[in-house]
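#structure-requests
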Amino acid sequence: MAEHNRFEHLKAHANACAYYRLIGFEVVEASEGFARLRMPVRQELFQFQNAVHGGAIFSVADAAVAVALLTLAEPDEQALTIECKLNYLAGVFPQNAFVDAEARIVHKGRTFALGDVEVKRDDGRLAAKGLITYTLRRERGGV
């Protein structure tokens, strides 16, 4: 499968994820070791202080790194988050239309991977910055 088609297939597969649809984000770009996801700002994501909940920001950040990692994964490889450090730097409010989470894979070994992510508001301001670690496992055949 050509590189472009492989990344398009990955985008379509990720965008079909029920959790992604529930939160409302989607993969808008994927290339080798990189992914950008967009999350529209919606009333359902606000916490009681009228800002997007940190959990929603965390979700799109984690998903962006996961998709970036999947661009490098072997066909039978699974990636599971095992650690995350996310610094929240600016709130996301009703006047913001969306946030973009851009992720790059910093390291991919045999059993662990590390990704760097930035979540930016539609006005370009950095809302969150993080490092996320994944364990890599191979699917086991049989029971």
